[in-house]
Specification:
heterodimer, A: Folate-binding fold, four-stranded antiparallel sheet, two-stranded antiparallel ribbon, 1 helix, binds flavin-adenine dinucleotide, binds zinc ion
């Protein structure tokens, strides 16, 4: 598997570290059911068989955080963007 | 047919022409008392113990492929009970005890081989951690021995003791650990369940659950609806997909783990050696192949095959530990999909749906758990209460903070 970093180009997956699901969002600790919201944020995942938005870190390269959309059934990468980029 | 030396001799004399299939080719019936989804080791063991321990014989195991096509037929066959935490040790030790009596119990040669499991350590800190784990095991009545370097050398003189980064300082040995022929476990439980009336239905995929008013009514399958009073899910790497059909989100990610086998060579390794610091472990099958592996690839996957960086990483670990391995050719390599839980420990529990039960989260270590998992899941399904040795494997432990995190890695499945 190769990942095409927007800054460094196509690189071996070995250069990247994987964090996981990019769709979960840290909840507001002030909401009334914060305990429940944090439990879901920290522990529960959709874990889809198919298209998955996920976070990769180019640790042996430019140190960018990337959002990669990848098919978990084939490992084929659909899109790659820097975190925060629109 | 009861297998014995006599039956073997009799069939040998008639040219092995009269062996019967080990289990019936069952067709789905309209309803069962219990349907188990997933014909891996855990599902088959559950069905067997439902029949044997609880007298519930109107049971079907529904498998989407064929028996043994999942992780039970893909693992590296290592069994051990060398855990640290109180939620884990009694469970895995119960599994070890069941392995020790399994072949007699199910009348099947599963090649249970207690050749020992040796974990290597390379620093004072790691030795301290091993001493702690070994003591925790002994407090639970599990065998463990802390070995000095020279004792390790006696067991495995061919290891590279003076590696610059990871010199071998000693090890933790569980003499009762070892290997078990994985396919034979699936076939043996399938046959033993079948003999007690369990229907094993292959090529039948569960595609949904029929639930009414929060109660399970049965499963929708590729071969029609099957009614059931109770349904147990034991689908390993597909746990999120199957539980998702019942509206659940699980604390699980699916990841791919690869394994490797070399060409057959003469007897070399008579134990199981793990080089945790180098992400490598190895044993030798009775056919002579070196069976080895390392870490999971580390990203979500349902592909049942991994990528080359991990192959390279595992081979580098092997070369660092025993350089002579470089002379051996690799024969095959494959992958299986692990149900990696958020704390690295399994779940055996009820679900919010009445009559629907969950068995999942086995990570890369569920083969050793097969007998106890089946035993405890059957207990839960039959009596609606957890078995004592599996009582910590609750689904709500992530919400209540009672996680069982052997490695202390936190909610990061690819690090467990
Ligand atoms: C490479 C590798 C090495 C490993 N090494 C070890 C080891 O040395 N020691 C150890 O203890 N563990 C090891 N493991 C882990 C161990 O194999 C698993 O944890 C364990 O086998 C999982 O339980 P199982 O046998 O029930 O799973 P499986 O055999 O995967 O059974 C699950 C079954 O469910 C079926 N299924 C899925 N979805 C559906 C559906 N919708 N309808 C019907 N059926 C369905 C699947 O087809 C499958 O047959 C290893 C795993 C791998 C992949
Ligand atoms: Zn980069």
């Amino acid at each position: 598997m190769q990942i095409e970093c927007p800054f460094c180009g196509k690189r071996d997956a070995h250069e990247f570290a994987y964090l996981g699901d990019a769709t979960v969002a840290r909840p507001d600790p002030a909401v009334p059911d914060a305990a429940r919201a944090f439990y879901e944020y920290v522990y529960l995942r959709d874990n889809p068989a198919g298209s998955h938005r996920e976070l990769w870190y180019h640790s042996a390269g430019c140190h960018s955080w990337l959002v990669v959309t990848r098919d978990t059934r084939t490992h084929a990468i659909e899109t790659i963007a820097q975190v925060g980029a629109r | 047919m009861q297998y014995s030396a006599f039956s073997l001799l009799k069939n040998a004399l008639t040219g092995h022409r009269y062996w019967k299939p080990a289990w019936r080719e069952a067709q789905p019936r309209d309803r069962y008392d219990v349907v188990i989804v997933g014909g891996g080791g855990h599902g088959l063991a559950t069905a067997y113990y439902l029949a044997k321990n609880h007298g519930i014989t109107n049971v079907a195991v529904v498998e989407k492929g064929y028996i043994g096509s999942g992780n039970v037929g893909r693992n590296t066959t290592i069994v051990r009970s060398n855990y640290l935490l109180p939620g884990n040790v009694p469970f895995y030790e119960w599994s070890m005890k069941l392995w020790e009596g399994l072949e007699r119990d199910i009348n099947y040669n599963a090649m249970v081989s207690q050749r020992g499991v040796l974990n290597l350590c390379h620093s004072d800190a790691q030795r301290d951690a091993f001493a702690r784990r070994g003591n925790a095991m002994r407090l639970h009545g599990v065998d463990s021995e802390l070995l000095e370097k020279e004792q390790v050398r006696k067991i495995a003189p061919y290891l590279n003791f003076d590696d610059a980064r990871f010199p071998i300082q000693g090890g933790l040995l569980q003499p009762r650990g070892g290997t078990v022929r994985h396919d034979a476990v699936a076939w043996g439980y399938a046959r033993a369940g079948d003999r007690r009336g369990v229907d094993i239905i292959q090529n039948c995929e569960v595609t949904g659950f029929r639930i009414d008013n929060g109660k399970i009514l049965g499963v929708e399958t590729s071969r029609g609806f099957i009614g059931a009073s109770k349904v147990g899910m034991a689908v390993a790497g597909n746990a999120s997909r199957v539980a998702g059909m019942a509206g659940m989100r699980l604390p699980i990610e699916s990841h791919v783990l690869q394994a490797f086998v070399s060409e057959g060579i003469k007897p070399l390794i008579d134990t199981v050696i793990t080089f945790g610091a180098g992400h490598f472990y190895i044993s030798q099958s009775d056919k002579g192949g070196l069976v080895f592996g390392g870490d999971i690839d580390g990203y979500n996957s349902y592909a049942q095959r991994g990528n080359l960086p991990t192959v390279e990483d595992v081979c580098e670990g092997g070369m660092a530990l025993m350089p002579m391995i470089g002379r051996v050719r690799m024969l095959r390599q494959w992958g299986g999909i692990m149900d990696m839980s958020m704390d690295g420990s399994p779940i055996i529990d009820r679900t919010p749906v009445d009559g629907l039960y969950l068995n999942a989260g086995w990570c890369y270590g569920g083969f050793k758990a097969t007998p106890a998992s089946g035993w405890c899941f059957a207990h839960l399904i039959a009596r609606d209460e957890p078995h004592a040795v599996a009582a910590a494997y609750r689904l709500d432990r992530f919400a209540t903070g009672h996680v069982i995190d052997e490695k202390g890695q936190g909610a990061q499945p690819n690090l467990h």
